[in-house]
Specification:
Structural class: mainly alpha
Order of helices and strands: EEHHHHH
Strand order of the largest sheet: 1-2
Largest sheet: 2 strands, antiparallel
Helix content: 55-70%
Number of helices: 5
Strand content: under 5%
Distance between the termini: 47 Å
Radius of gyration: 23 Å
Shape: flat
Number of strands: 2
Length: about 180
């Protein structure tokens, strides 16, 4: 039998525009098939790297839980039961807010990277609209736990962002170095 003179197809590597599970391109021609390596450009990150968005959740949720316990105890000592409830509500609100954003953005990225911006913006507008109305109602009620609630929000934001910074600068960077051999 004669050798086939047809050139072998170019190998297709995983890329941010190729979903190896669905075998679909995430480009403008969804479902057109995998994107060849030459079309992606050099150094394009792989599919798995795009989906690291949820890998940090155990660390940041753990930091938020530890803060919730500590801040609730401090709130109870400083301002009694109302202080404990206020600070716990503040930390909890921040944690739930950031968690919701993380999950929506990870979902949008898994469907199509171009959905991250519109879904992210819509999530922020919806969250801050609901939170704003709720806070206006609580502020108007004269609740004694409002000041501890505000402090809970502040320390909740610092803890979540701090845990993210720690995770990205240590764990994620180590993973990247391991993937690139550097």
């Amino acid at each position: 039998m004669a050798a086939d003179s047809t050139p072998a197809p170019e190998p297709v590597a995983e890329s941010p525009t190729t979903d190896p599970v669905a075998g679909e391109s995430a480009g403008s021609t969804l479902g057109a098939g995998p994107v060849p390596a030459a079309a992606r450009g050099a150094g394009a990150p792989g599919w798995a790297e795009r989906h690291w968005r949820l890998a940090h959740l155990p660390v940041v949720l753990g930091a938020s839980l530890a803060l919730l316990v500590l801040a609730t105890a401090v709130g109870a000592v400083v301002a009694g039961g109302t202080g404990a409830v206020g600070v716990a509500a503040g930390v909890g609100l921040v944690t739930l807010s950031y968690l919701a954003s993380t999950l929506v953005l990870a979902w949008a990225d898994s469907v199509h990277p171009n959905l991250v911006l519109p879904f992210g913006l819509a999530t922020y507008v919806a969250k801050f609209s609901v939170i704003g109305v709720a806070l206006a109602g609580v502020a108007g009620s004269g609740w004694a736990g409002l000041r501890p609630f505000g402090w809970g929000v502040v320390v909740g934001v610092i803890a979540w962002i701090g845990a993210n910074i720690w995770w990205v600068s240590t764990v994620h960077q180590a993973r990247i170095r391991g993937m690139t051999g550097g």
